[in-house]
Amino acid sequence: MGWQWCFYFQIIFFGILFVILLFGMEDTTFRRDYNEEVLEGKILQQIKSRDAAPVDSTEKGMVTEVGIQQVTSKMSSEESEDSSIDYSIPKRTYWQKLRLIELEYNDKRSWLTIFIRPFYLCTFPAVIWGGVIYGAQMMYLSLLFTSQAEIFAASPYYFGANTIGLTNLAVFVGNIIGMIYGGPFVDWLTVRLAKKNNGVLEPEFRLHAMHVPTIINAAGLLAYGLGAYYQANWAIPAIIGQGLLGIAMSATGGICLSYTVDSYHQLASESLVLMLFLRNCIGFGFTFGFQPWLDHNGLKVVTWLIFMLSIIINGSYILMIKYGKACRRWTKERYEKYSDPNYGAISLFGKK
C-alpha cells in the first residue's frame, strides 16, 4: 500500500474519533465541593474505635471491612438526608451540553493560573520521581524504534519492511499484559496490603509491585540489545526482548501514575500534568539524541549503559518505599496550601 498509507490510516482513525467526540462527549466541567478527607477521617476513627471490633477474636480480620462498611453506609445516608435537589433549575438540553463556549459552569480561574499550578509541585518528591520514572520509559522506546530497522534489516535477519513492522506485535501483546499487571493486579495487591495494615492504605503499597517490572525491563533490554548484537535467533530480540520491554513499560507507567495520585489525590490533575511534562522533556531529548549516541558508541555499549540506567532509575522505588511516607509528611503543609484551587490565582492585571 505504500508508506503514505501510514498517514492516511491515521487521518481516517482521527477523523472517526473527532466525530465521536464532537457529538458524544458532553461537557464534564464540574467543580466538586465534597471533601474526601472527611470520609477518610471517619473511616480511620471507626477502625480505631473498639465499638467496631467483634467480640470473637477469630473474627479480628473482619474489623476493618465491617468498620469501613458501617461508616460508608452512614456517610451515604447522611449525604442523602443533607442534600437536596432544586427542581426549579431546568435540566440542560443535549445541545447545551455540547456547546463549544461555556460561560456558566466553566472554571472561573484564569488560564494562566491553571497553567502555573502544576509547577508548584516541583518540590514534591513523589511527583518528580513519578515523572522521571515515566519519562525513562521513553528512553527504552527510543532504543526500540531507533534501532529496529537497523538491526532487523541487516545480517543475519534480512527482514523486509513489513516483517520489521510486525515485530512490534510483541510490544503490543506485552503492553496488554503490562496493563493488566499495572492496573487490576496492583489494585488487588494494594488492597491486600492495606488489610494487613489494619485497613489503612498507604500509597507506598503500590510500589511493592515494582519488583517485577524492574527485573523484566532489565532482562528485556539485554535480550533485545545483546541478542541482536551477538546475532542470536530472531525470536530473542524480536519476541522476548520487545515483549518483556512492552510488559515493563506499560506496568511501570501505571504504577508510578497511581502512586503519585494516591499520594496527593487533591492535586491529581496538577500532578499528572507535571509528570507528563517531565516525561515529554525526557522523551524529546532521547528522541533526537539517541541515534547519534548509538552511532558513536555502538549497540553493545548503549545497551549496557541503558541497562545500568534502568536498574538505577526503576530500582529507585526501593528508596520511595522507605522514605516516601517521610517525604509526604515533609510536603504536608504545602500540600494543604496548594490544595486550595484558588491558591496563587493570577489575573491579567497581576497576582490576586
Short description:
This protein is an all-alpha fold. About 70% of the residues lie in helices and about 0% in strands.
What's the SSE blueprint?
Layout: H1 5-24, H2 36-48, H3 63-82, H4 94-97, H5 111-116, H6 125-152, H7 161-166, H8 168-196, H9 211-229, H10 235-263, H11 268-314, H12 317-330, H13 332-338, E1 346-347, E2 350-351
Antiparallel strand pairs: 1-2
Helix pairs in contact: 2-3, 6-9, 6-10, 6-11, 8-10, 9-10, 9-11, 10-11
Kindly describe this structure.
With 352 residues, the protein is an all-alpha fold. The protein contains 13 helices and two strands. Helices cover 69% and strands 1% of the residues. A two-stranded antiparallel ribbon has the order 1-2. Strand 1 and strand 2 form a beta hairpin. About 2% of the residues have low confidence.
CATH class of the largest domain: Mainly Alpha
Helical amount? 55-70%
Overall shape: it is globular
Q: For the largest beta sheet, what order do the strands appear in spatially? A: 1-2
Q: What's the alpha carbon Rg, rounded to whole Å? A: 25 Å
- pLDDT averaged over residues: 83
Total domains: 2
End-to-end C-alpha gap: 58 Å
What structural class do helix, strand and pairing data support? Answer: mainly alpha
Provide the CATH architecture of the largest domain.
Answer: Up-down Bundle
Bin the strand percentage: under 5%
Q: Are there runs of 5+ residues with pLDDT below 50, and where?
A: 57-64
Number of helices: 13
User: Strand tally, please?
Assistant: 2
CATH fold category name of the largest domain: Growth Hormone, Chain: A
State the major sheet: 2 strands, antiparallel
Oligomer: single chain
Order of helices and strands: HHHHHHHHHHHHHEE
CATH superfamily of the largest domain: MFS general substrate transporter like domains
